[in-house]
Design a protein that fits this description.
Largest sheet: 3 strands, parallel
CATH class of the domain at 313-457: Mainly Alpha
Shape: elongated
Distance between the termini: 76 Å
Number of helices: 19
Length: 458
Amino acid sequence: MIVRTRFAPSPTGDIHLGNVRTALFSWLYAHHQGGEFILRIEDTDRERSTLEATNTILAGMKWLGLTYAGPFYQAERVAYFRTVAQQLIASGKAYRCYCTKERLDQLRAQQLANKEKPRYDGCCRDKNLPEKNEPHVIRFKNPLAGEITFVDQVMGKLTFKNDELDDLVIIKADGYPTYNFSVVIDDSEMKITHVIRGADHINNTPRQINIFHALNAPVPIFAHVPLILGSDGKLLSKRHGALSILQYRDQGYLPEALLNYLVRLGWSHGDQEIFSREEMIKLFDTAHISKSPAAFNAEKLLWLNRHYIKTLDPQLITEQLLPHFQKLAIDVNKGPALTDIILAQRERAETLEEIAGKSRFFYADISVNDELKKKYFASDHREALSTLQHRLSVTNDWTKEGLHQLLKDVATEFNLKLGDLAQPLRIAVTCGTISPPIDITLQLLGKRRVLERLAKVL
């Protein structure tokens, strides 16, 4: 058997951490088993589905590097879903329902007043109503007796009684399929063997299994993953700091950090915290997915981002870093190589956005404000700075080591601590009090820029 998993988001809004964790778990399981991972866009909600949301899904998957077969679009198969529904009617497994909205509203109100579970009462179930030029839906004829039992790879054995389920709508009045119907047909025809999704879908599963049976289709193996909670124990939302996936990208998180964080959000392999993509694929299984909800921790995600900024090959980071400079309208062709910037800044940065912001002075013209001039360029340092300016202008050794020695020599000559000389120099060439080590900063800025900026403040 070839293992096939899928990620099937609805393009009705941004995809968030919970969606992406589901996609990641499905992707890892397929790759661990040597199988296939499919992306299916479930865009049959005509009122809420948007092209923008679809593009966000595709951009997010590309950024994260979660490769897939597809994408496949449900909306392109609406006519086929209707055909299958008609076949179910012909075989006595579905029926047309002409109940009006007013009748259904009254039924619901009465059931709630009687403290009953709201559900369709089967009014049209056995009438075998023909197709008429009137608004109607098609309902699945759910079994009235018996029960559905399945073994969930995360939750274990689950059982539901059929008499607790009503006859769900499978084709709406506008002719479009409902989620529970279209997902079964697509999972069946795409030969999906394992469905890994959020625990909020557990109650849909017995309904879908009954439809699989009605279609004489094999039922996939299910794994329902507990939802992600905020620090207050409530469902994760923006108030907990959770963002859409592309917002994490735009704020300077690395995909490696986000994937590493998500794989540990409800899954574990001993006490290991850091996983490469290859290790995730090798080690992932559904047996070690926790049954308990996981809690989102923004600080841990930031910690992982710092780790990957520090440890990844700078060449791999440059493609992710470039857009942050572009957002600041900085031309990186007019300065040091981005790999050198990453090496210089990565020990003191938490995000790529921060690296770009702190590196503006390497590329753009700057000016020291009057307050810093007054504080750092007092008369007792001017002679030392002027001497330093001259020595920098005539040196031919513009290496980190050579510049460091030059600074030490001038500081010693004027009986200054190295910091007393380095800090005003830093202010002059960066317009700020914080930068990479001054010798590295000078080396990356280059001789022309350093001398121009030092001359400007002197």
